[in-house]
Design goal:
Chain lengths: 304, 397, 287
C-alpha cells in the first residue's frame, strides 16, 4: 500500500505494552487452539482426503493419488470458471453500487450516519435463505421487475448479453448474479465505509481546491485514499461469492451450476469424497493465493 | 558551575517529602527522552518543568507517577526509593493533559474513585469538599461528557487533590483551554496550591504560564535540565542560550574579551566597549563570550540626542530597519554595523516613533547584561517559546 | 504617492446577473450520489420487506411465492408446520451456546492483539482472518472430512463446533476495534488513583469495552442462527436447524410460518440494535 494511502487515515497506533511474559500467549491459547484444530487441521485432512482412494463402504487409503485432481479439474473446470466469472461480476457490481452508498454514508449523511449504518446491516436481520427465496417472488414472471425490464428495453440488453431465458428473469444467470451481488453487498459497503470514514475531510477539500473537475479530484485524492477499503471489500465479497451455491440453486438453473454446488453434491450425495475434497481444496488454494498477494502488499495488521 | 538541578539553598539535605530524581535516563529504543537527569523538587513548592515539546518533561512526570519506568536511575520521595513501586502504591496523583475522566462514571464517582480504592472513610464529605474547592459542587451527578472543557479540567484536579497526595503532578492541564479561562485557572491553581500546601509539579511549554505560577522553574531541553531557579532569576540572568531564548526574548551578541575593570569584564564588539558584571558571566572563556541583553532593557534614541550617560553600555552606528507600533510598546529592529539586527522594545510613554532609516544609539545598564558561552548555538530555543524570535545571530568578528 | 487628479469614472449601473433557474436536471445531478444511495437501500431492503409482507399471505398452493390474500393465519398458528419449531429451538440452543464460547474466546484474543506486542502477531492475524475469507463450502467440507476421518458422529455437537469456529474471528474484529478505541490514559488514570491491575480491568476497562463485546456476541449469534452451508455439511438427519428446514422446504413446499419466524427475528434484531443506538444517543455529550 502506498504511503499516500496512509496520509489522512488514522492508522491505529501499535500497542505499547511489552509482552509481559506469558500473558498475551495465555489469552490467545484457547481461541487459537480452537481455530487450529477446527480450521487448519481440517484443511490438512481435506488435502489428505483428496489424495486417498476408496469409497465410503470399503474405507479409504492414502495412495497419493494426484490423478484425482486432474480428473476432477477436467470434469468440472466449466463450473470453476463460471463461479469465478459470476463472483467477479458480482464483486464489480457490488463495488459499483456499494461505493456511492459508502460515500454517502461517510460524507453526506450528517446526523443520520448511525441510522444508515444500521440500515446497511438490517438485511442480515432476516435469514438469508428467506431473503434469497424472496428474490424468487421479486423476479417472478408476474412481478413488477420483469414488467419494468420489458417496458424499458433492459430485457433486450440482457438478452443480448445472453444472461436471461427469453422474457424470464428467474432461473437465469442474471438472477444468480443479481442474487450474489445482493447477498454480499454489505460485505463490500462496510469495509469501504470504514476506509472512507477515516479519511481526513480536509484532504478532500484540498483536492477539490486543486483539481477543477470533481471527477479529477475523486480520481486523484478520494479513490487512492479509499484503496484499503476497496481491497478489503473486494476480498470479502469475491471469495465467499466464488464458493456460494445457494443463489445458484435457488435462482438459477442446471446450466448455472457453480463449483460450490458440485462440491456439495459430491460430498453429500455422490459420496465421492476424494473428488469432492480435491475440488474443495483447489478452491481453497485459489483463495489463498489471492489473500497472499494482498498480505504481501499490505501486511497483516489491517486484516483483523 | 553550580549543579543546575539542585534546589536553591537546599544542596545536600533531603527534606521529608522532597522529590528527588537521581541520574535518571529514559530510553525508548534508540531514542533518549530523558538524559541523565538529576533534579530535586522542594516539598510544598509550586514547581514548573518548562520546555518545548519533545524535551522530556512529560516523560519525567510520568516516571514520577510510575506510569513509565526509568531505564537507569532512581526516584525518591523524601528518603523512600519509589523507583520500582507501582503507580497505585505511590503517594502521587496526576492531572492528565486530556483530563482522562472516566466516561461511564458521574462526576461524584470520578472524584471518589481514589478514595474508594483505598477504602477510605467519609467519602461523601471529602468529595463534596473537593468539588467545592474547584467550585463544581452543583454538578456532582453529571457525566463528564456533559461538562465543558474548563469544568472537566477542574474535576480532574478535584479527583487528584481529594486524595491528599504528597505530590500532585499536572501534565499541561491548561493546554486545551481558551486564553481567558487559562488565565483564570492559573490563578485558581496557584491559590489552591497555597491553600492546600501540596507539592505541585506542573509541566508546560508555555513560559508565561510557568513564570506566573511557579516558585521554581526547571528549563528542560533534549532530556536535560538547562537551568533551574526562581522565575525572576531565570529570566534576568539566564545561563544558557536556550534559556535566554526560550524564556522571553534575548539579543545575543558575539564579543571579544578585552580586559577587566574591577568587578566587570570588558568586551569589545566591532570596536565598541561593553561592560559585563563578572557574576553574570556564565562561561569562563578568555577569548569570546555571547553578550546578552533583553530588548526591553535597551534604551533607544536618535544619534546625538541620547546624551552620554556615564556607566551605561552604549552601542552606536545602528540604523532602524523596522518599526512596529503595538500600542503598549514599539518594537524596533536596529541593524548594527556588523550586520546583526538588535530588537528593542520601547514602552509607550509618548516618545516620538523613530522611523526606519534613522541612525540611533542603543544604551542599557551594565547590570542588565549577561554573558553566555560563545560555543553554544545562539539560536537554541528560538521559535520554541511560542513568540516572535528576537535577533540571535552569532557574528564572526 | 500618487495624487488623485481626476474624478473616478462613474460606474455604469449594471443589472444583477440573472441566476439560472435550477431545473430538475440540475437538482438530480447535484444529488446524484444521494439518489443512487437511496436506490441501493431499496435494493438491499426489498427482500426483507417481501419476507415480512408474505408472512401475512395465504397462499393457494404449497409455495409462498405469489400474493393471494391477506391473512393472520400463519401468525396465529406459528408452529403448525411439522418439525419447524423444533428446528427453531435447536437453532436457538446452538446459537446461544456458540455465542457464549465464541465471545469468550474471541474477547481473549482481542485483548491479546490489542494490548500486547508479541512474536507471532502476523501469523495470528492471518489465522484470525482466514475463516472470514474462506468460502463456507470449503470450511464446511473440510470439517466434514475431519469428523469422518476421526469417526466422530455428526450431529448437534459437530454443528456447535463449526459455529464456534467461524464466529471467533468476527468477535475478535468487533471487540478489538472497541479496545483500540479505548484511551489507554483512562487505565493509567485508574492506576494513578490507586487501582491495581485487577481493579482497573474490572472497574474501567471491562465496562468501557462491554458494548464491543455485546456487539460481537450479537454478530456471533446472527451468524450462527443464519448459517446453512457449514451446518448442512456437519449435521445429521436428526439435527435439523432452522436454515436447514427452510432449505428443505424450498423444494418441498414453503410454509408461510417460515416468514413469520423470519419477521420475528428481524424485529428482535432491529429492537436490539435500536436499543443500542438509543443508549448511545442518550449518552451523547450535551452541547
Amino acid at each position: 500500500m502506498s504511503a499516500i494511502a496512509r496520509i489522512g487515515t488514522d492508522a491505529a497506533p501499535p500497542p505499547t505494552r511489552r509482552g509481559k511474559g506469558l500473558v498475551p500467549y495465555l489469552l490467545l491459547l484457547p481461541g487459537l487452539l480452537w481455530l487450529v484444530v477446527f480450521f487448519v487441521v481440517p484443511m490438512l485432512t481435506l488435502l489428505s482426503q483428496s489424495l486417498q482412494t476408496g469409497s465410503i463402504d470399503t474405507g479409504y487409503t492414502m495412495t497419493w493419488h494426484w490423478q484425482t485432481y486432474t480428473d476432477a479439474f477436467s470434469l468440472y473446470w466449466p463450473q470453476f470458471l463460471r463461479s469465478f466469472i459470476y463472483a467477479f461480476v458480482a464483486t464489480a457490481l457490488a463495488l459499483l453500487i456499494g461505493y456511492p452508498l459508502a460515500y454517502t454514508i461517510a460524507f453526506k449523511s450528517g446526523r443520520w450516519k448511525g441510522v444508515l449504518l444500521v440500515l446497511v446491516i438490517a438485511p442480515f436481520f432476516t435469514s438469508f435463505l428467506l431473503r434469497t427465496l424472496a428474490w424468487q417472488t421479486i423476479l417472478s414472471s408476474n412481478g413488477i421487475v420483469v414488467k419494468f425490464f420489458n417496458a424499458t428495453g433492459l430485457m433486450n440488453v440482457l438478452q443480448a448479453l445472453n444472461v436471461v431465458n427469453g422474457d424470464q428473469l428467474l432461473s437465469t444467470p442474471f438472477a444468480v448474479m443479481a442474487g450474489l451481488t445482493y447477498n454480499f453487498l454489505p460485505f463490500m459497503v462496510l469495509p469501504l465505509f470504514a476506509s472512507l470514514d477515516r479519511i481526513d475531510p480536509r484532504l478532500l477539500e484540498a483536492g477539490a481546491d486543486l483539481y477543477g473537475r470533481p471527477f479529477t479530484a475523486f480520481r486523484k485524492v478520494t479513490w487512492p485514499l479509499s484503496m484499503p477499503g476497496v481491497v478489503a471489500g473486494t476480498l470479502l465479497t469475491f471469495i465467499p461469492a466464488a464458493g456460494d451455491y445457494i443463489n445458484s440453486k435457488l435462482l438459477g438453473n442446471p446450466n448455472t451450476t457453480m463449483i460450490g454446488q458440485v462440491i456439495d453434491g459430491q460430498f453429500l450425495r455422490v459420496l465421492d469424497y476424494p473428488t469432492a475434497a480435491a475440488l474443495s481444496f483447489t478452491l481453497m488454494v485459489t483463495i489463498l493465493v489471492l489473500v497472499s498477494v494482498y498480505v504481501w502488499r499490505a501486511g497483516t495488521e489491517e486484516l483483523v | 558551575m553550580s549543579d543546575p538541578g539542585a534546589a536553591p539553598g537546599r544542596e545536600g539535605t533531603a527534606q521529608d517529602g522532597d522529590v528527588r530524581i537521581v541520574q535518571v535516563t529514559k530510553r525508548f529504543g534508540a531514542f533518549t527522552a530523558v538524559d541523565d537527569l538529576t533534579l530535586t523538587i522542594p516539598q510544598g513548592s509550586f514547581f514548573a518543568l518548562l520546555g518545548p515539546s519533545g524535551c522530556g518533561k512529560t516523560t519525567t512526570l510520568r516516571m514520577v507517577a510510575g506510569l513509565e519506568d526509568p531505564t537507569v536511575g532512581q526516584i525518591f520521595i523524601g528518603d523512600k526509593d519509589i523507583t520500582g513501586t507501582k503507580p497505585y502504591r505511590r503517594p502521587v496523583n496526576t492531572v492528565f493533559q486530556n483530563y482522562a475522566l472516566f466516561p461511564h462514571l458521574d462526576i461524584f464517582e470520578n472524584v471518589a474513585f481514589g478514595l474508594r480504592r483505598r477504602k477510605e472513610g467519609d467519602v461523601k464529605r471529602r468529595v463534596e469538599e473537593a468539588l467545592e474547592l474547584v467550585e463544581l459542587g452543583h454538578l456532582a451527578r453529571r457525566k463528564p461528557s456533559q461538562l465543558s472543557g474548563g469544568q472537566q479540567q477542574r474535576v480532574a484536579l478535584a479527583r487528584a487533590i481529594v486524595n491528599r497526595p504528597t505530590v500532585l503532578l499536572l501534565d499541561e492541564p491548561l493546554g486545551a483551554l481558551d486564553l481567558k479561562l487559562r488565565r483564570q485557572m492559573q490563578i485558581e491553581l496557584k491559590r489552591i496550591q497555597t491553600e492546600v500546601g501540596i507539592t505541585f509539579v506542573h509541566v508546560t511549554h508555555d513560559q508565561e504560564e510557568a513564570m506566573t505560577m511557579a516558585d521554581t522553574i526547571a528549563v528542560m531541553n533534549a532530556g536535560r535540565v538547562e537551568q533551574m531557579g526562581h522565575p525572576g532569576d531565570l529570566y534576568e540572568n539566564p545561563a544558557t542560550t536556550f534559556a535566554a531564548n526560550f524564556l522571553g526574548q534575548s539579543n545575543l551578541i558575539l564579543a571579544e574579551i578585552s580586559g577587566t575593570a574591577g568587578e566587570d569584564i570588558l568586551l569589545s564588539v566591532a570596536g565598541q566597549r561593553i561592560a559585563l558584571p563578572r557574576s553574570r558571566a556564565h562561561a569562563t572563556s578568555t577569548l569570546k563570550l555571547l553578550v546578552g541583553v533583553r530588548p526591553e532593557k535597551i534604551r533607544i534614541a536618535a544619534e546625538g540626542l541620547g546624551g552620554e550617560a556615564s556607566g551605561m553600555n552604549v552601542l552606536t552606528g545602528g540604523v532602524v530597519s523596522d518599526t512596529s507600533f503595538t500600542g503598549v510598546s514599539t518594537q524596533y529592529l536596529v541593524r548594527m554595523p556588523w550586520g546583526q539586527e538588535i530588537m528593542v522594545f520601547a514602552q509607550n510613554v509618548g516618545a516620538e516613533l523613530l522611523r526606519p532609516g534613522t541612525k540611533v544609539e542603543l544604551s542599557w545598564v551594565p547590570a542588565h547584561t549577561f554573558g553566555l558561552d560563545a560555543s553554544q548555538d545562539a539560536n537554541a530555543g528560538v521559535d520554541l517559546g511560542g513568540e516572535e524570535p528576537a535577533s540571535a545571530v552569532g557574528v564572526s568578528s | 504617492m500618487a495624487t488623485v487628479t481626476s474624478a473616478p469614472p462613474t460606474r455604469q449601473a449594471t443589472p444583477p446577473a440573472k441566476r439560472p433557474r435550477k431545473g430538475p436536471i440540475t437538482w438530480v445531478r447535484e444529488h446524484i450520489i444521494a439518489i443512487v444511495a437511496a436506490l441501493v437501500f431499496v435494493y438491499m431492503l426489498l427482500p426483507n420487506v417481501i419476507v415480512i409482507l408474505f408472512s401475512f399471505n395465504k397462499p393457494a398452493g404449497r409455495y409462498n411465492y405469489e400474493w393471494v390474500t391477506f391473512s393472520f393465519d400463519a401468525w396465529l398458528h406459528p408452529c403448525a408446520p411439522p418439525g419447524m419449531c423444533t428446528a427453531v429451538g435447536l437453532s436457538l440452543k446452538i446459537g446461544l451456546l456458540a455465542t457464549l464460547v465464541a465471545t469468550i474466546l474471541g474477547t481473549m484474543i482481542a485483548f491479546s492483539l490489542a494490548r500486547y506486542r508479541f512474536r507471532g502477531r502476523a501469523a495470528t492475524n492471518l489465522l484470525i482472518f482466514m475463516p472470514m475469507a474462506t468460502p463456507e463450502v470449503v470450511m464446511g467440507s473440510s470439517l466434514l472430512t475431519l469428523f469422518v476421518n476421526m469417526a466422530f458422529p455428526l450431529g448437534t455437537t459437530t454443528i456447535l463446533i463449526a459455529h464456534i469456529m467461524f464466529s471467533i474471528s468476527f468477535v475478535v474484529v468487533t471487540v478489538k476495534a472497541r479496545i483500540a478505541g479505548l484511551d489507554p490514559r483512562l487505565e493509567q488514570a485508574a492506576m494513578d488513583l490507586y487501582a491495581n491491575e485487577r481493579q482497573t480491568f474490572m472497574k474501567i476497562t471491562l465496562p468501557l469495552v462491554a458494548p464491543g463485546i455485546a456487539a460481537g456476541a450479537l454478530l456471533a449469534f446472527s451468524l450462527s442462527f443464519d448459517d446453512y452451508i457449514i451446518t448442512n455439511f456437519n449435521a445429521s438427519s436428526s439435527s435439523i436447524t432452522f436454515p436447514m428446514f427452510v432449505w428443505g422446504a424450498a423444494s418441498k413446499g414453503t410454509p408461510v410460518q417460515i416468514n413469520v419466524i423470519g419477521t420475528v427475528m428481524f424485529l428482535i434484531s432491529f429492537l436490539i440494535v435500536g436499543l443500542g443506538q438509543f443508549i448511545a444517543w442518550r449518552r451523547r455529550p450535551k452541547d
